[in-house]
Amino acid sequence: MHNSENKKNWCPHRFCVAPMMAWTDRHARYFLRQISQNARLYTEMVTANALLYGDPKRFLSFDPSEHPVALQLGGSDPVSLAQAASIGEQWGYDEINLNVGCPSDRVSSGHFGACLMAEPTLVADSVAAMSEACTIPITVKCRIGIDDMDVGEPLDQFVSGVRSAGCKTIIVHARKAWLKGLSPKENRDVPPLDHPRVYELKRSFPDMEVIINGGITTLGDSLSHLEHVDGVMLGRAAYELPYLLASVDQRVFGSNKNTLTRSEIVEAYIPYCEIECGNGTPLHHMTRHILGLFHGCPGARRWRRHLSTQAVRENATTEIISEALEMVSTNQLAA
């Protein structure tokens, strides 16, 4: 069914990898792009002030092969967000996403993230300012609610507000964020998932792209959700088990290209690592993102151990990746 659909009518967010702090840096995104050519990738959250008063190159540099790639911003001042969004567009990002979903204390104390769901007018004003400053799409990532907020009418009102402000795509983590008493880690698991509420949101706003996030761990799950919404976003599963993305292009986007093997993905990543090492980037900054590639395969433990212990050495080279790959290949031949 999915392969027979007309690709040009598909939502560009049909399959996304979530923005994840300390995980989805430019090296991780380059690696994931070797596995799927079509999945939409997101940066780690960057605060608007970090771009305005810090070094934009540090936060915004990316390889052209990462497209389609979106910049996620955090903030609550419409003027600052508009300026930061404009900078992101100038750097070549395909989309600017506003974070209205992160539940961490640090984020809340900075007056951005999930706490902004209690201020829908401010969020709408921010989206309007960002939309005015950019020609690329402005999207919003949120929760179905926070704390004791009802997930019925208030959520509809929130979405209606950002839609009126120019947002055509809403990414919804299908669980509440509890800002009082739960850690960010607990917020990923403790509040119950409510995927049907996101389906209902799509029915209420048929003219918007509604993307579902939260608790999705397999490609089969993703295809099931796509029967109800426009797109899916995977977080930890896509990062920790990256080979999950290997058939996304074929099964989600209808590509006729062959699925790459794990070894082919590694071979495609090594030249990038060589260039980065030549520019002074420590090897382990790249290899930390590929530890889960051989999960479930014979030799996976040797792969992880070799990379974890050897890539951190001073002046480590990509030969260490080749050595680790040989260990896995030898185990597969013997299996």
Compact summary:
This protein is of the alpha/beta class and 335 residues long. It has 15 helices and nine strands.
Please explain how this structure is put together.
By secondary structure, the chain is an alpha/beta fold. It folds into two domains: 7-251, Aldolase class I (TIM Barrel, Alpha-Beta Barrel), CATH 3.20.20.70; 262-334, Four Helix Bundle (Hemerythrin (Met), subunit A) (Up-down Bundle), CATH 1.20.120. The protein has 15 helices and nine strands. It has an eight-stranded parallel β-barrel with strand order 1-2-4-5-6-7-8-9, surrounded by five helices. Mean pLDDT is 92; it is low at 1-8.
SSE diagram, text form:
Blueprint: E1 15-17, H1 26-35, E2 40-42, E3 46-47, H2 48-53, H3 56-60, E4 69-74, H4 78-90, E5 95-100, H5 105-109, H6 120-133, E6 138-143, H7 153-164, E7 169-173, H8 195-204, E8 209-213, H9 219-225, E9 231-234, H10 236-240, H11 248-251, H12 262-278, H13 284-287, H14 300-310, H15 319-334
Parallel strand pairs: 1-2, 1-9, 2-4, 3-4, 4-5, 5-6, 6-7, 7-8, 8-9
Helix pairs in contact: 1-12, 4-6, 6-7, 12-15, 14-15
Number of helices: 15
Radius of gyration computed on alpha carbons: 20 Å
CATH superfamily of the largest domain: Aldolase class I
For the biggest β-sheet, the strand order reads 1-2-4-5-6-7-8-9
- Which shape, going by the Cα principal axes? globular
Q: What is the mean pLDDT?
A: 92
Number of strands: 9
Looking at the overall shape, the CATH architecture of the largest domain is Alpha-Beta Barrel
Unreliable sequence segments = 1-8
CATH class of the largest domain: Alpha Beta
Q: Tell me about the biggest sheet?
A: 8 strands, parallel, barrel
Distance between the termini: 36 Å
Summed up, the domain count is 2
Write the H/E string, N to C: EHEEHHEHEHHEHEHEHEHHHHHH
Which structural class should the secondary elements be placed in? alpha/beta
Share in helix? 40-55%
CATH topology label of the largest domain = TIM Barrel
Relative strand content: 5-15%
